[in-house]
Structure formats: C-alpha cells, structure tokens
Design brief:
It holds the Pfam family DUF2909. This is DUF2909 family protein. The chain has 64 residues and is mostly helical. It has one domain. The chain is elongated. The two termini are 13 Å apart. The chain has two helices and no strands.
Amino acid sequence: MLLKVLIALVFLSMLVSLAAGAGFLLRDGGTSRRLLVSLKVRVALAAALLGLLFYGFYAGGLAG
C-alpha cells in the first residue's frame, strides 16, 4: 500500500512541476533559469517514478 501512495505522490509532484514550468515559461518568457530547474526536477521525479514502478512490478506489489 505504501508503494502505491509513493507512486501517486511522485506523479502528483511531477504534475505540480509541470504546472510550475508552464507558469515560469509564460511569466519569464523562457529567459530565467527557473524553467531549467523545473525541468531538472521533473526529470528526476520521472526517474524516481520509473524506479518505483520497476521495483513494484519486480517485488510483486503492483502485479494483479
């Protein structure tokens, strides 16, 4: 159960980072480093999400 909650939290964090990046792009016109930082956070969260999913299927916590 904890694994599913972690996966949901990481996914929601990715959505928040995506919204923040869109806001930075619209507000700053893509000239600030905040957009790049938001992208880096989103990539790290995506890697964490993939790791959690692989672990969940490997351990059997997400199968079935």
